[in-house]
Amino acid sequence: QPELGKPMRNCYSLPGPDFTYGMYMHKRDGGVPEAIGHWDTVKAKAHPRKRVMPRDFVAMGRAAVDEGCTKAREFALYYGYMDIRCKDKGILRYGGKVPPGMTFGKPPRPPTPFFDLMQQRYKELWMEEQRARTRVQHMVKKKVGIMGEVRENRTTFLRTHPLPVKEESFWHLRRFEKVQGPQNPSPDQRQLSWASTS
């Protein structure tokens, strides 16, 4: 059983204090004086040769056509005379020199003039743009209105020009057309009835 307050011991016996755990490297380390006196130097690698790029037949064919070549023999002679190579896109990968006119990154945007900010020039320009846009929209609406009168369909025409209301004509038999009933008195009867009442 383990002792009180102590973990149980395993059954393996540990080596003595002179034992070194891990791999022992047989290397003499002289400390700081040896590190200062013997620097580890790295030999420079040989400069890689300039890569020979393949021939750019597309560019050569385009140039041959510009020169007026039309036959296969003329193209072959032109290819033997002109030697255009593909451009090395990875020119900066292997220690190549940067071309003199090459610039990395995006060009900076022009600075904003502070005087225009103080005078609210951008607000005025925006207002002018809005006014011009309103004028253009008004002109377009006028043109659409004129074109709409020419190209309107039946529905829009009837909405703007409604048909006249037809008067209702009640149909009667012929034998009842001559009879004057009390509902429809003749003008002479109306005058007589007016005179008798007055």
Automatic annotation (TrEMBL):
Residues 181-198 have a biased composition (Polar residues). Transmembrane segments: none annotated. Pfam families: CFAP77. Residues 179-198 are annotated as: Disordered. It comes from the Eukaryota. This is CFA77 protein.
